[in-house]
Amino acid sequence: MIDEKKIQNLVDSTPSPDERLLDKILAKAARKKGLSLEESAALLNMHDEKQLRKLFDAAWKVKNEIYGNRLVLFAPLYLSDYCVNDCKYCGFHCSNRGLKRIRLTMEQIAEQTRLIIGMGHKRILVEAGEHPDNDIDYICDSIRTIYRTKAGNGEIRRVNVNIAATTGEDYRKLKEIGIGTYQLFQETYHRETYEKLHHGPKADYQRQITAHERAFRAGIDDYGIGVLFGLYDYRFEALSLLSHARYMDETHGVGPHTISVPRFRPAPSVDYRPEHPVSDQDFLKLIAAIRLSVPYTGMILSTREPPEIREKAFAMGISQTSAASKTSPGGYSTRQNRQFELSDHRSVDEVLQGMCRQQMLPSFCTACYRSKRTGETFMKLAKEGNIHFLCHPNAILTFKEFLLDYASPEMKELGEKTIRTELERIEDEDRRNETKKRLKRIEKGERDLFF
Ligand code: SF4
Ligand code: SF4
């Protein structure tokens, strides 16, 4: 799956492309069929400002052609910070004895869910440490509780899950409960670094890297991969992510639904400092290079990043993002136990205003998962470049719900202007007229209309 020697060799020996080669790579990327590892390595080894500008423009164009200008929003919900692992970069590591651990009860989960719904979110990413008390039955009960919870006009319509690598049997239970995407990050693909930074069951590199295959065999066809940038050379990590994606695509016929690109952030009680810190410029470069290499894959950015980096990253390939996140169990009502520090503390309303000013279209869409457009069906639409015909009107409809139910007066005004502009951008007249009709129905009180 990951040929470390080959990847390291590509990192070390691929020269930065000259103008001619760069134009050739970008012309290939514009056809939206992806790039070879060698071509991705060439992009990752570029440093020239003018060349990077070209790369960023190309990434935006490809993202826009596949997904349009929509950005899908979600919120993480930490269920429990009990954990048997001792990952050096995480505030929940088990040797952090001073941490007063919390495992949310079902009542507390319902309360946190209501607070998240009250911000306007429709998607939750469930997170929990690895611990016997956080077993699969607890996780499934929690997901059931989240789906059952209502508040005003709102509810959570899609629960994605980020929990420790587990067995096929556990994945089958997750599938039955109706999860969206199962995310698991390798953290670092560099085996030596992996073994150095992990203690506990997670230290088993093989268990971690084969987890998506077990999940897939258990019926989970929407899965996400990722690394924690900063632990090892970002070029090695990016190429490994691409190798992993290709392996899954070639072996199982479905590439990852998402690639997440978290960058290391400090956390209380964590002394570890990245041996391979990634500069802002390199971070944006790797996002753009991944976008061009696997154009059909969603890319996720969290509130670890400050607003100015987030805005730049949105404009070069990110398609999903969190907003107003809390990274501790119970964090939406108290302030404690952060897994890591955040850099974007804006409210959902403020994040959305920024998106609109950037000519992005905020989206709370969950339509594919609920119309069974997952796995191969989704990938087919995405690879043929047809998914934005659904994403765009669905973004308009769900954004309208936000404006009616949760927005500040300033947001309402800006958002309505955005919707008017975006409606005119729907090329198909029938689809445009149907979207307008549905907007009227939403104004009259209907909710959850989608294509
Ligand atoms: Fe536990 Fe996950 Fe933190 Fe590791 S990263 S200590 S597994 S919560
Ligand atoms: Fe995501 Fe599908 Fe909605 Fe597009 S239409 S935003 S791919 S759920």
Q: In terms of topology, how is this protein built?
A:
Elements: H1 4-13, H2 19-30, H3 37-44, H4 49-67, E1 70-80, H5 106-118, E2 123-128, H6 136-148, E3 150-151, E4 154-155, E5 158-162, H7 168-177, E6 182-183, H8 191-197, H9 205-209, H10 211-217, E7 223-226, H11 234-252, E8 258-260, H12 280-293, E9 298-301, H13 307-314, E10 320-322, H14 348-357, E11 361-363, H15 367-370, H16 375-383, H17 388-405, H18 409-424, H19 429-443
Parallel strand pairs: 1-2, 1-10, 1-11, 2-5, 6-7, 7-8, 8-9, 9-10
Antiparallel strand pairs: 3-4
Helix pairs in contact: 1-11, 2-4, 3-11, 3-12, 4-12, 5-6, 6-7, 11-12, 14-18, 17-18, 17-19
The structure holds iron/sulfur cluster (2 copies).
Walkthrough of the structure:
The chain has 19 helices and eleven strands. The protein is of the alpha/beta class and 451 residues long. It has two domains: 65-357, TIM Barrel (Alpha-Beta Barrel); 381-443, no CATH class. The strands form two sheets. Strands 1, 2, 5, 6, 7, 8, 9, 10 and 11 form a nine-stranded parallel sheet that branches. The radius of gyration is 21 Å and the shape is globular. The model has no long low-confidence stretch (mean pLDDT 96). The protein binds iron/sulfur cluster (2 copies). Residues 83, 85, 87, 90, 92-93, 129-130, 164, 202 line the site of one iron/sulfur cluster.
